[in-house]
Amino acid sequence: xxxxxxxxxxxxxxxxxxxxALASLRVAxxxxxxxxxxxxxxxxxxxxxxxxxxxxxNHATHLTEQLLREPMKKPHQHGAHCDxxxxxxxx
Length: 91
Hints:
62% of the residues lie in helices and 0% in strands. It has helices spanning 5-19, 22-35, 39-53, 57-68. Helix 1 packs antiparallel against helix 2.
């Protein structure tokens, strides 16, 4: 997957804001302006990052751990002599 230059620079602006990386933010905004990206789009990317930044980090950590956790038990395997009563072996 390849991002176009406009999308990439707006993502850099958002990431710089979210990380409070001021030097990176300055460079990214200057590049965006030189590319002709309008100020309204830059402001929208910045405001989105501020909105995301308001979410507590522990919520993001919890969600990430939940999504990447291995399943606790393996899916039920059905065989010819399955006696679990779920009816899955007749499928």
